[in-house]
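Hey, sorry to bother you again with one of my protein questions. I've been staring at a protein lately and its backbone has me curious. I owe you a coffee for this, so here goes:
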Amino acid sequence: MRHKTLPMKRIGIVGLGLIGGSLLKALRVHDSDLMLLTVDQESDESLALVDEQVDSLELLANVVDCLILAVPISVVTLLTTRIAKATKDRKNPLLVLDVASVKRKIAANFEQLSSATVEFVATHPMAGSEKLGFSHSRAGLFINAPWVVAPHGRNTQDGLEKAKGVIECVGATPIFMEATAHDRVMAMVSHVPAILAKSYLEFVRKHCPEMEKIIGPGFRSFTRIAHSNPKMRQEIAQENKKEIQHTLFCWMQGIMFDK
C-alpha cells in the first residue's frame, strides 16, 4: 500500500531513463501537487511530466528537499562530490538517494560525504526490465517490489524515515540491509544469473542456428536478462567482482556459503 503523504514537497530526479522515468511517473501519479524537477540535459519526451528544469546539478541540489540519482554506478560518486560542495550553505538538510545495484563502495562514499547540510542514503530498487529508456518506463514498475536501503554510520533516523516514505509512496517495500551483505546477495540472485544467461544465450546462438525458429517461452524467460544494458552489466561485474567470483566459485565447487 502506498504512503498517503510524502515527507517532502520538492523532489529532483537526475537521469530519466527506465528507473528515473518510472519514478517520475509514479511520483506524479501519487501526488499531483508535488513539485518535480530535473536538470536541462533530459529529453523532451520526459519533460511533459516535469514542473521545472534547472540549469545545473548544483542549482537543483539547492532548490529541492530530496534528490534522486538514477544514474550509472560510475557516475554516482562524481555527482555526490559536486552535491556535497554545492550544499554546504543549505539551511535545511538535503536528502539524496541513489538507485545503483552495487552498494558497498557507494555507501562508504555516502558516509564520508554526509553532513549537517546533506544526507546521502544508499538504496536499490529490485525492479527493472531488459528494455531501456524513458519510453519503457511506467508508473507501476515498483508496485510490491523490494527496495533495499543500505544505511551507513552517518545516516539519521529522520533521513532513513524520509527515504522509506519515498520508497513506500511509489508502492515498493523497504528492506534494510547492510551494504556488503546486499552486494553478496545481489551476486547470487541477480548479477551471476545475468552472466549465466548471457553466456548460455551466446553458446546456443553459436551452436544452434535453428534456435530462433523453435525456441519457446521457457528459453525466452531464462535468457531475458541477457538482453539487459551491456554497459550497466559491465559496470556491475567490475564493481561487484569479488562477490561475483565468490558466488561462481562456490556454485561450481558445490560448497556451502559461509554464514
User: Anything to note?
Assistant: Residues 216 and 222 are 10 Å apart (CA to CA).
